Amino acid sequence: MAKEHKKKKQTWLFLLIAFIVVLIGYLFISADNNNNDDVVSAGDVDTSDFPQWLLDIYNDPPKDTYVPTLFDVLDLAYENGTITEEQYYLLSVNAWFTGKGGKGLTGPMPDEYDPTTLLGLISDNIENLSSDAQKILRPLILPPQEKDSFWNDDNKFDDYMKKLEIIPSVTAVINKRGGVAGYLIEHPGEQYRAKIDAIGDELTKAYQKYIDAGYPQFQEWFFVKLVPSIPSSGNTIIRGSAELAKIEGKRRCWITIGLNADEKHLRSTAAHELFHCMQYNMGLKINQKEKWFRESTAVWAQEFARPDFNIEHERDTKMFSSFDKAFFDKSDLRHYASYLWWFYLYQKEGKTGQEVKKMITDVKTKGMKGAISGRPNYADELKEYALWNWNQDWFKYYVDTDGLPSNIPSGSSIKTHTAYNQKEETVAVDMLAGSIQYQFFFIENDIKKIEFDLAKVNQNIFEKNSVHMIYLVGGKWYYQDVSKEDKVKFCRTRAHDLVDVVVFIVSDADLDTDLQLGEIKYDARGECNPEWSGVVKYSWTYTHSEDLSLLTLSGDPGQSNYRERGFLLSRDTLVYDDDDDEFVIKEQHVTYSYDESQTFSYQRECGLQFESSVDQVKGSSMKKWGVDKDDPSRSSSPTRMWASDDDPLEYDVDVDIIGDLNSIRSDSRKVSVRKPCGLEGISTPVPPSYSSDTFTSKGVSPRGPLNQISAKLSEDGKSITYNGQGYFNYGDTKVPVDVEVDYRYG
To answer: Is residue 170 scored above 60 in pLDDT?
Structure first.
């Protein structure tokens, strides 16, 4: 018995060793396969078609790296009532010069700081402060001419020669008192002459541009103080400030600019601070609550005054990484980066600057939040703004020199999730007022069907919400507006639905609700029943420019620019009608967008200066038709494809079907600018006049290719596809239209 037991033990040991050898071999082969980028194992996400930026997000999901700066900490403490108004002023000034706050109030210094709002608040409220606080703070708000002023050269800049000169505007502005509105510049010496001249030139040009846009003229000269640099703590940069002060017996705007910058930044700073003066001149009050509005529009003014500099775009990263913050959030200089909102509106309205001008007027009476939320189409604008900020394939809409802005959503704007096979999961989508989130779902490779439930995040529950869906199939991005759809399903056993990434762009236009609790749920269990389904997609872009010099009677130089672009994407379920050899639509999810703009600009002293027309047609719908599968011809559903008379293996396709035309809305706007011609011998300039007309309608038919599109039936009879071009006509020019048809049975 002992020998037999020993023999069994040896056999068992041999089998164990053999098993280990086989296992090691298997693991070696498996490891070798895992090193092959072309192999995707079950359970993995297929990243083979990911562009590099998407691969980076998948491998290293963005995190919110924001750390409140010391000024953010002080702002929050003041707004929450933790510190008094007087303490806020004193601690903010202390932070400015020393980088230190009060007890328990700490944080890093920002890269850049603008004390305009702080100095304005101190100036408005100095008399309400204690005598000790007044002694500390008053020198900061006294103009440089006062001997006790912090800005007086005798007190702070003894090493520099004091110079004084008056530089009037190039075009004299006649005020009611008959004087000339110009500006007084005080500078530290001739060694800065090139920079002084650049700032003077920019103030003149920017001022004239603001006046030409219809902003009210100054009735008194304003004061400009140039210093070698504005003192600050550590590496924090302070480029300039603008405030109101009593100078030579009258309340005037006073600009301070540090000369420690290159010419482009000096000119942009001059345009920025001068725009603060324009705001004050229009009666905009200085207060902490409106700080977001004042600074975001002043950064926009840098683009308006100097569109070729692109200095404003240096702030893009802070915006693209924080769309999930509240709309009016001011942390980490976000109120400066929020110029992007005004840049979006500015581009949409034809770059006349009238939207910002109107909003300054509205903010005076309605407040910042009331003016923004009271815009007639604010929810639609925020919805479109969210899509613009995808800022890549399909939706690269921003147009500025050098292709800027070039950023895409990053940081805490992005939320990432992986959808797992045979699982269902609910993801929280908690939205701050006016925020935007980019929710990325990476789809596990062995999922056969995935359905997203949007019922607790879309417009059906939150009236002012919008939800865009951008998804990746076979390396191509597709788009669908799902703002009103409760569920979206992908059958991944079908080629056109083999989705690897789904991105939901959620925007919340409800500025009255601080926090909105929503959710997105996915269900990756089971698989789809066999049926015909697929997509029709077409898109186009066309631009045309023309010199108008030879077409005007006066021969004045002029330029015409025309641009149109659009797309239609329809995801359909079809039913085959055997009797008529055609396919009818059973269910359709369609999104359509078309925009056209044309501008005429003329270089002339007076008369018509500019004309623009902008047309936008867009909408989305989901519609189901009751189709009798036994006799589809008896249904009222539209026919998507029918057998071609020319080729038995081809189907002619009606590509521009929209089941619910009432979902398509058209918005048109026409703007013209005229500068009145003055009487001969009288040089008094007259502000230009602006006229604007808008028109809205519904039920607009989509624009579709003019030529017949015919798709090919595969040999196995399970797919009908086309990938090629159609065309539109623009005058004698044929505009190419990219067309894709992909229907499959499975």
So the answer is: no
Confidence at residue 477, expressed as pLDDT on a 0 to 100 scale? 94
Question: How far is it, in rounded angstroms, from Cα 570 to Cα 537?
Answer: 6
Rounded CA gap, 477 and 661, in Å?
A: 25
pLDDT digits 0-9 by tens, 305-333 = 999 999 999 999 999 999 999 999 999 99
Nearest residue to 701 (alpha-carbon basis) of 668, 742, 671, 656: 656
Contact 614, 350 (CB under 8 A): yes
Long-range pairs for 127-132: beta carbons < 8 A, 24 or more residues apart: 128/85, 129/85, 129/86, 129/89, 130/86
Per-residue tokens: 670? 């026409």
Chain length of the chain: 746
Q: Take residue 196 and report the two structure tokens written for it.
A: 């002084």
Separation of CA 220 from chain center: 38
Q: Are 741 and 711 in contact (CB under 8 A)?
A: yes
3-state secondary structure 363-432: HHHHHHHHHHHCCCCHHHHHHHHHHHCCCCCCCCCCCCHHHCCCCCCCHHHEEEEEECCCCEEEEEEEEE
Strand 465-473 vs strand 476-481: parallel, antiparallel, or unpaired?
antiparallel
How far apart are alpha carbons 554 and 607 in whole angstroms? 11
Amino acid residing at 388 = W
> Residue 575 corresponds to which amino acid?
V
> What is the C-alpha radius of gyration for the chain, rounded to an integer number of angstroms?
32
What b/e sequence results for 457-485 when a residue is b if at least 16 CB atoms lie within 10 Å of its CB, and e otherwise?
A: bbbeebebbbbbbbbbbeeebbbbbbbeb
**Burial bucket for residue 250 (CB in 10 Å: 0-12, 13-18, 19+):** exposed
The tokens describing 90, both together, are: 């004193």
How does strand 182-187 pair with strand 222-227?
parallel
Q: Please state, in angstroms and rounded to a whole number, the distance separating the CA atoms of residues 684 and 203.
A: 20
Give the containing element (helix H, strand E) for 92.
Answer: helix 85-98
CA angle 406, 408, 412 (to 5 degrees): 140
Alpha-carbon distance of 295 to 241, in angstroms, equals 11
Rounded Cα distance between 602 and 558, Å, is: 4
Mean pLDDT, range 672-693, rounded to an integer? 72
H/E segment holding residue 439 = strand 436-443
The answer, yes or no, to whether residue 32 has pLDDT greater than 50, is no
CA distance linking residue 380 with residue 395, whole number of Å = 16
